[in-house]
Amino acid sequence: MTIDYSLYLVTGRDLLPEGMTYHESLEESLRGGVTVVQIREKETDTLEFLEIARESKTLCDKYKVPLIINDRVDIALAVQADGVHLGQTDMPVHVARTLLPPNSIIGVSCNNLDHVRGAVADRVDYIGIGAVWATNTKNLSNPVMGVRGIGTLLSALDGTDVNAVAIGGIKSDNLLRTLHGSVSPSGHKLDGIAVVSEIVASRDPYNSTRTLREIYTDFSALLEQQGIPRPAPTYTADSIKAGVIDLMRVVRETNPLIHQITNVVVTNQSANATLALGGSPIMVTAPEEMEDLSRILGALLINFGTVTSKEGMMLAGKYANREKKPVIFDPVGVGATQFRRQTAAQLLNNWQASVIKGNAAELAALAQSEEVQAKGVDSVGPGFVDPAKFVRDLARRERCVIALTGQTDWVSDGMTIIRLDNGHQLLGKITGSGCVVGTCVALFCAGAWAQASSEASSGKLVRGDMLLGAVGGILALTIAAEVAAPQAGVRGSGSFLPALIDALYNLTPESVLERARVQVFC
Ligand SMILES: Cc1ncc(COP(=O)(O)OP(=O)(O)O)c(N)n1
Ligand SMILES: Cc1ncsc1CCOP(=O)(O)O
């Protein structure tokens, strides 16, 4: 039996809003388009469970939607349900199979790789992976997995025909993030999502279901259209330069608000660079302000040079994702301490970065590669043997644009690779020039966001061309450095900094066109 797992409803009668009957709620969600229904009754006596299951079976048959029973093989048999869902401490799969009619659907809950391997060996039809996010619907015995955890388990299904749904805290406002971030590095995606409260606790289950369906369908269509790995779009060095110049104009015209959670060393420099390029800086860290800010910002930069408000960083990214705004992550010195490595992993598990920008040591640490070592926040040694491949692979793994900065800069979205050869050695003599690159990238990504129409973003976690945004930000700063360094008043690194801010302020399309050294590889 072929099943559409895309929108899997798990029932929860205790969550029904006042005045709404179980029957009404289930029928509305079936009308709205749920594709599988699981009856989950944890505290109900057998007789009542049986009655609920019979009523549900009649409704599901009317809408030709398969019915699954949670835990209870006897109830599934009694109502001729299509299958059962079993937890790790429920009846073993091989026993259930001997009791159920042939071709019954069997699903199993999985929380770790051993569970998945066991489920594959048991030849189950699908697995329910979770909990992805925190939930009030069930007392969890394991920590939440986050989207990266889902991707890891999905990889273990490569080459099998076992389907997978994610469960736990999935809502319309985190669904796109859940779907986007859970695609495994091998390209394995979820076959569906399982939800309880978002539909059952809704006063309007029909529309809650429709909204989830729409997000799921848009994302799937986009993935299909892009393919994994995606076919290369046609960038050329000239189209990149023209695009960057256009973004520069958009930034100056739209004056985007750039929310920067950054470190104490560079706050002032970053704010001045933002103003010089035509943006508006706001350097807020309080968690309480993140939701309101997300609605008005043009882009969010999270730089964890000095991690002062982890909670603020968590919330800022989450809300920016919800608003489909660019999130630029600069994991300063991530390899330096265990705390930084853990924090970066937590942040990336919680929200999706649009661009991750770092030096060789920082990106090596994120990729868990030993190839480049760090000294504090700096890289030591000659860098990656094959930086082009490194950025492309990391972009595929992190599902975002990767910008590797250094003497030569490399940018990739997992498909196109761009090499940039601008800059000046004085950039290395002032503190925080890398952090200011992050600011410039955030500005150009905000320009790319403003330029893209909201229709074009259907199914996407962020709207606009983030590859171009990352390239634009790097070129703006490195070209400004080339312009600033030979100025008459520049006598060393101290006088270079104000000249650099001036050069950003006075940056012209002509100097970008003339100076940009861009190479594109596919
Ligand atoms: C689709 C889906 N996935 C996971 C679960 C959780 O099942 P289990 O671990 O058995 O926990 P309970 O639901 O029994 O509390 C599920 N029900 N459905
Ligand atoms: C049954 C179950 N198993 C893991 S999380 C969960 C509950 C999911 O409920 P909700 O969708 O309301 O978070």
List the helices and strands and how they pair.
Blueprint: E1 7-10, H1 22-32, E2 36-39, H2 46-62, E3 67-70, H3 73-79, E4 83-86, H4 93-99, E5 105-110, H5 113-121, E6 126-130, H6 146-155, E7 163-167, H7 175-182, E8 192-195, H8 197-200, H9 205-226, H10 237-254, E9 257-261, H11 267-277, E10 280-282, H12 290-296, E11 299-303, H13 310-322, E12 327-330, H14 338-350, E13 355-358, H15 360-366, E14 373-375, E15 378-380, H16 387-398, E16 401-404, E17 409-412, E18 417-420, H17 433-451, H18 466-484, H19 493-505, H20 509-515, E19 518-521
Parallel strand pairs: 1-2, 1-8, 2-3, 3-4, 4-5, 5-6, 6-7, 7-8, 9-10, 9-11, 11-12, 12-13, 13-16
Antiparallel strand pairs: 14-15, 16-17, 17-18, 18-19
Helix pairs in contact: 1-2, 1-9, 2-3, 6-7, 7-9, 10-17, 10-18, 11-17, 11-19, 12-13, 13-14, 17-18, 18-19
The chain binds the ligand Cc1ncc(COP(=O)(O)OP(=O)(O)O)c(N)n1 and 4-methyl-5-hydroxyethylthiazole phosphate.
